[in-house]
Amino acid sequence: MRLLRYLRENVRFLTAGVLLTFLSSFGQTYFISLFSGEIRAEFSLSHGEWGGIYSLGTMTSAIVMVWAGALTDHLRVRILGAVVFGLLVAACLFMAFNNAAWLLPLVIFGLRFTGQGMTSHLAVVAMARWFVATRGKALAIAGLGFSVGEALLPILVVAVMALVDWRLIWVGAAGITLLGMPILLLLLSQERTPQAISQSSQATGMNGHHWTRMSCLRHWLFWLMVPALLGPSAFSTAYFFQQVYFAEVKGWAHIELVAQFPFFTVISIFSMIGFGWALDKVGTGRLMPFFQLPMVAAFLCFSYADGVAMNMLGLFFMALTAGANATLIPAFWAEFYGTRYIGAIKAVAAAIMVLGSAIGPGLTGFLIDFGIGLEAQYIGVALFFVFASILMMIGIRRAVPLLLVR
Predict the structure, then answer these.
(1) Cα separations in angstroms, 297 against 142, 241, 300, 311, 318
(2) What is the pLDDT of residues 164-202, one digit of tens each?
(3) Please, are residues 178 and 85 in contact by the beta-carbon 8 Å criterion?
(4) Would the pTM count as exceeding 0.90?
(5) Which of 203, 315, 340, 393 would be a feasible disulfide site paired with 210, CB 3.0-4.6 Å?
(6) Phi and psi at residue 194, in whole multiples of 5°?
């Protein structure tokens, strides 16, 4: 009953969050990578060339995110969201009608900046700012849009692509995004805005301060967190980006691999909800040091998988971290650095995560062309997550006592 009352009282804002995260799908790697085979064939690209183009477009979007992400501290979500949706529509149409290989980096930039970058950023910043006592719950509910996209779109796209030209699917993506614009404006017709939140209701961070972006960047905790920000974005992205090639290496049909993605989504939903509930109860400090350890097991499973069952086990572990990542990371910035300037701070964090999603496909594609297979690469990825978790444990342990200083 308490949950139903919560949903009823906040339905507009939570639905807006779900809408934003769902429509970010069209700029997410798992969606774009579904067309990797067609794009490489159409433009005669090697794995390394396609990975390099993808990395260049994504890296450029990360740079622009540092500036554009701070706009969430000043503009209403419904206005900024409608503009971003409009740009995402244009990016989808650009992909649908582009015939020049040299324009692909610009196409990828448009999709990654508007989809994966700004649309996701708007959703998590809005939830982190609008909700305080139930921040974890709000982030988990909004994150369901990611999960719905991950569960439905890959199977749907693979099935439809067998019937129609792949470019028409991008036209459809543009149409769906266009429909989202009036829905967002309607949901947020009475929006909670940054200007509508009083100074007294804004939560402080460590040492009782309202941390600015520059003070955050000068703080040691931020830099200890960087590998943890890069890791899931880089290597989960790489896994989905290389899904076609990975299936070939393992000797599986692509549809066999894609059919496992709903399982990943279901586990990530349970993880997201579970971690959202837990962080409202115990805070991020107790949860953060350990949430990326399942990635170690995940990539070892991917490396040694000799059948789809072992790959599914890997997806189970990766989903645990994916669900936690969707709730813990946004809540971490609000809890440790405060909410007054969270848009600007989260923009830098989002840029780092977008940068990670640029590094992953480019690095794996280059290493494939260089003769180092995905199976060997994934052992190195597992070791990276051990390193990132150790740094996070050191940083969080030192920082938690500072939350008590007011």
Answers:
(1) 27, 20, 5, 11, 8
(2) 999 999 999 999 999 999 999 888 877 654 444 434 446
(3) yes
(4) no
(5) 340
(6) -55, -35
